[in-house]
Amino acid sequence: MSDALINGLAGAGGGIVAQLLTYPLQTVNARQQTERDPSKPAFKDGAVRQLCLVVQNEGWERLYGGLAPSLVGTAASQGVYYFFYQIFRSRAEAASLRRSIRGIGDGSVGMFQSLTVAALSGCVNVLLTNPIWVVVTRMQTHRKANKQQGPQDQGLTSALDKALQPAPVENVPHKTINVIQDLYKEAGAFGFWKGVIPALIMVSNPAIQFMLYETLLKKLKKRRASNFKGAQGLTAIEVFLLGAVAKLGATLVTYPLLVVKARLQAKQMIDDDKRHRYKGTRSAIIRVF
């Protein structure tokens, strides 16, 4: 088995585990990103409140809406990324070795080359898997009609809770095939690549994360120079925390692009309000502002 295939399978497996653990939060996140009416609760409430509202009004299963295509997308995305990363990395290493034979460089792959390899792999991944994520976003943001309440439940529901509940939505079958058909009718084949431009720009996220991680690691190694261990002295928890902080910083920088991408991928025809329809990335950014 080739190194590229091994890396692809390992990345896919890890991605699936992470997706299963965090999916309810991803569903809430997608709903908050795509809510366009500032007067509605989804625009104002925090993640915990949103989780409670989804469970109360639509049932636990809605927290996992679109899970099946999401797992397929995660496996495909991680697999494609690591597969092409290994291919591009091997070519970069071979090119560096050829240059070193000619007396240029030491034969190692530098930071800029590594970031280029990661960016190219990310672009290929986005172009190949974007249709899956459009379907997932639409399934996550689909709202079922509120669950029916008995007379005693209605009497216990306060006016405040009623005001915070999202408006009922038509309770129609919303399976993967329904979403695909609906998307094709709405925008044709090109509809499956909605949000691809911000997604391509989002490829910079790992590069930002990598630079932040390396910066934090160097500072930590400098503080630990006296123990002569350097990075080898880091515990698994410390490595996890460094990675988490670096990812947090990268996410804060690129988050606006995630909002734009999610809004482009969500269903556009909302209450026939032209303010809620986006023709493209530029249109979405302007209308959000």
TrEMBL record:
Identify the InterPro entries for this entry.
MCP_dom_sf (IPR023395), MCP_transmembrane (IPR018108), SLC25A32-like (IPR044712)
- Which domain of life does the UniProt lineage start with? Eukaryota
GO BP term, pick one: transmembrane transport
Q: Does the keyword Repeat apply?
A: yes
Gene Ontology terms: cellular component: membrane
TM spans (from-to): 67-88, 109-128, 192-213, 234-258
Q: Does the keyword Ion transport apply?
A: no
Gene3D superfamilies xrefs:
Mitochondrial carrier domain
Give the location in the cell. Membrane
Q: Which UniProt keywords apply?
A: Membrane, Repeat, Transmembrane, Transmembrane helix, Transport
What topology does the record note for this protein and the membrane? Multi-pass membrane protein
Solcar repeats by residue range: 2-91, 109-219, 234-289
- Assigned protein family: Belongs to the mitochondrial carrier (TC 2.A.29) family.
Protein name as catalogued: Peroxisomal membrane protein PMP34
